[in-house]
Every structure is written in C-alpha cells, then in structure tokens.
Amino acid sequence: MPPKVRRITKQTLIYVVDIVLDNVDPPIRRRVELAGDSTLEQVHYVIQAAMGWGNSHLHEFEHKGLSYGDPEPDGFNLESETDTQLATLLGPGDSMTYTYDFGDNWKHTIAVHEVTQPEPGVTYPRVLEAERACPPEDIGGPWQYPGVLEEARRNPDDHELNWLLEIDPEDPLREDREKALAILAWKPLAG
C-alpha cells in the first residue's frame, strides 16, 4: 500500500533523480522530481509507477554496503526503508542501486541530478523526462529480454509471445503510469 499523501512546504527540498535500468540497451531512463524527505519506501513506489513495473516482487536499495528494504520477509537482513529518507543517503551527484525482482534481477541506478526548491502549484512526484518503455515482468531479466523480444518478432502468431509486440518501447509515459503517480502525489504549496 503506497504511503499517505503529504504536503510539500517551502522547506522541502526537491530531488531531481535519474532512474536508469541497468544492462538494457538502448537505455531505459526516467528523470523524476520528488521530495528529498521521501522515505525509501516512498521512493520505491515512485520508481514502480514511473518505470511501469507492477510491484509484484521483492526489492531492495543498496548504498555504501548497506541494504534497505522491507525487513519483514524472512531471511532478509535489511535496514528499514520506512525509516530512511532519500536526503539522508544522497546529495547532488550521489547514487545508489535499486533492485526489483530478485529472480529477474532488474537493477536500476538511482542518481541525484540536482537538488532544487519546490515550485508553487506543482504536484510531486512528477516525471520530467522518459526514454523507452520498461520491459515486461517475469521474462528472465535483462539478459533474456532481447532474445524473448526477438523471438516474439520472428513468431508474431505465437500467442504466448505476441503480447510482447503490443509494448511500444517508444511510449514510456502511458496514462496508467501517470495515474499511478497521481495516487502518490504530494499536495503542492498553497498559493
């Protein structure tokens, strides 16, 4: 369940963050603005919405040898993502890793492009730029994706693969992603 909506104040720092899906060529990237005092749990939901993932697998953040995530699943020794804010780990030019789906191992580099002040009337988080659609889930990760996509192109009548051809890799900002970000929206400054 996404965290509750909160208000952006004049003291809130806005982080402009680049999210890049590693080991996929051509690159799949999002540039997102979000509050620096977002918890890593909130950052997780922003990544899920901005990239177009389905939030159906485990995840973790890694930074300077420490792992952050949901400490509830058995067998995981993680720092709590609900107790850690983005701004306590990263500043301008810093980065960390976010892994989604430990089976497919979708690794993302999260890099802070800049830190700015909030703009009155702007709703955060918001996607500023996007390059390419995210791959479908459960296809074997970044190493299997190119082969599966090529197989779908070679066999358009294969009903188990042809759904891949419906994905437009050049249309990364679908309406469902915008709706998902709207659910996470933090209320803008009043006037």
Automatic annotation (TrEMBL):
It comes from the Bacteria. Residues 14-166 form the Plasmid pRiA4b Orf3-like domain. InterPro entries: MM3350-like_sf (IPR024047), Plasmid_pRiA4b_Orf3-like (IPR012912). SUPFAM superfamilies: MM3350-like. Pfam families: PRiA4_ORF3 (PF07929). This is Plasmid pRiA4b ORF-3 family protein.
